[in-house]
Amino acid sequence: MNTPTFAIAIMAAGKGTRLKSKRPKVLHEIGGKALLLHVIAAARQVVPEENIYVIVGHEAEKVKAAAAHTGVQFVLQAEQRGTGHAIQCVKAHFASNGLAAPEDLLVLSGDVPLITPELISGIRNFHLAEQAAMTILTAVPPDPTGYGRVLRKTPDSPEVTAIVEQKSLAAEQLSAPEINSGIYAFRTAALFAHLDLLKTDNPHGEYYLTDVAAMLVSDGARVVALSTANLQEVLGANTITEMMELDAALRLKTARKLMAQGVTIFRPETCTIDAEVTVEADTVIEPFVQLLGATRIGADCRIRSYSVIQDSKLEDGVLVRHGCVLDNASIGEGALLGPYAHLRPESEIGEGAHIGNFVETKNARIGKGSKANHLTYLGNAEIGSGVNIGAGVITCNYDGVHKHKTTIGDRVFVGSDSTLVAPVTLADGSYVAAASCITEDVPAGALALGRARQVTKEDWAGSRREKQAPRKS
Ligand code: UD1
Ligand code: CA
Questions:
Q1: Ion ligand 2 nearby residues (CB, 5 A)
Q2: What residue segments make up the domains of the chain, in order of their start?
Q3: Which end of the chain has fewer CB atoms at under 10 Å, N or C?
């Protein structure tokens, strides 16, 4: 059997009582991604996923479903009796599955999401160099309240005497500045030898993993602390407020990364940009823009204020004017959208096409250079190139039960305020007169008129005014 040198355990079984939310804490999102998935992503850069053990308990099935695609292992902690108990479950998992325990075990918290691979490798290397039984990653935040505190033998010594939880701090310890990040490296044998000795005689009545520190010290083992200056990377997300602070920090980091790649972002603190969005150089993003999910934006685009773009792909040189909503849309080079366009899933807008104000598209392919500039609904539509869709045109695609397709060829002109009752085809180069209701196919090059003929009554207005004039008395 192969003994891995390192494995990583991620504690993610807790409920997150302080969030006051139905959703398990580790599935709350920052930067558009669940806390746990941030931690797993960092861990996978340090050890392969088959050596990563995620401890699940509260809403275990939901948490597993959210992380299954990463290929990590899961360990069930059916009852959540504290962080020490979570690691007892890992020990039991190795034993009951006949797995060789790794020589060293890194422990991460599922609710400390901004941890980086560099910091995880840093603590591992420090732990090995110090030949420690336990290494604790620490930081000194402006306000340490709420965190466990790490007490060192002397202020300059790497050696630790104990970790004391907030509720157990003695009066003179309340100002102890160095916090336990909840991230540790252990010599696995030393850790496992002490786990079963943990007690629950503390204010929470839980098995604290943190108590292992003092136990190891009293056995003469070496326990050290590594303090990081990258405070944000080790902060926990225990309340919605803390989580939103981390969200803002992460989004600002994403914006800065994009700016370093040549993207201009005005007032980046007002923009909501998810962690996995990509944008190419010379694109300009105005204030109050949201770029979400798997959105990819090319070069030389401009995204004007108040647009929300989700899971969409924009080629180079696209102009998105104010207030557009894009969801799962793909936009060709040099296209022009908005203001106030709504592109719903499976909208494919061709190169140089114009989709103007108050135009809604859904499952619609619109060809190169075609224009729908005002007040239009295009659903289940296949539209060729060089087409002009007049103001107020509607594809009537839904009969109350089924959706039907509208097919429009190249260079078709659809007059304003026309309704196209699907299924219907307007062949290449055809014309539809304004205000037509089109229910039959229009052949190539034909003109279709589908409206009542106008009736004009000469001199009608004058006689009406006479009839309506008040009687003279
Ligand atoms: C813990 C540390 C504290 C540290 C802080 C850093 C302990 C006793 N305290 O406190 O010293 O400053 O993290 O963020 O460890 N979990 C389980 N099973 C359980 C209980 C918790 O998997 O039975 C998981 C939670 O889902 C969470 C992590 O462990 O991801 C930490 O638990 P939490 O209750 O948030 O601990 P803190 O009170 O923050
Ligand atoms: Ca926590």
A1: 111, 236, 238
A2: 6-234, 263-448
A3: C
Residue position matching structure tokens 């993003």: 285
Q: In this predicted structure, what is the pLDDT of residue 473? A: 66
Q: Which tokens in the block code for residue 343?
A: 């592109």
Residue 202: CB partners within 8 Å, gap ≥ 6?
Answer: 165, 167, 168, 208, 211
Q: Residue 35 CA: which ligand is closest?
A: 1
Which of 8, 10, 11 is the best mutation target for the ligand 1 pocket, counting ligand atoms within 8 Å of the beta carbon and taking the most? 11
CA distance 380 to 386: 19
Residue 78 tokens, joined: 């059916």
User: Mind listing the pLDDT tens digit for each residue in 343-383?
Assistant: 999 999 999 999 999 999 999 999 999 999 999 999 999 99
> Is residue 463 helix, strand or coil?
helix
pTM, 2 dp: 0.90
**DSSP structural state of residue 82:** -
Query: What confidence tens digit (pLDDT) does each residue in 413-445 have?
Result: 999 999 999 999 999 999 999 999 999 999 999
Query: Residue 83 to residues 155, 205, 408: CA-CA distances in angstroms?
Result: 27, 12, 63
List the one residue out of 185, 177, 190 whose CA is nearest residue 130: 185
Q: Is the CATH number 3.90.1300.10 carried by domain 263-448?
A: no
CATH architecture of 6-234: Alpha-Beta Complex (3.90)
Question: Which amino acid, 193?
Answer: A
pLDDT tens-digit readout, 122-131: 999 999 999 9
Question: Is residue 136 within 8 Å of residue 220, measured between CB atoms?
Answer: no
Query: How many Å lie between the centroid of ligand 2 and the Cα of residue 120?
Result: 18
Which of 25, 38, 85, 111 to mutate for ligand 1's pocket (most ligand atoms within 8 Å of CB)?
A: 111
The distance from CA 442 to its chain's CA centroid, rounded to whole angstroms, is 46
Ligand 1 surroundings by CB, under 6 angstroms? 11-14, 26, 55, 57, 77, 80-83, 85-86, 109-112, 147-148, 163, 165, 179-182, 208-210, 236, 238
What separation in angstroms does the CA of 291 have from each of 247, 275, 295, 354?
A: 14, 10, 7, 21
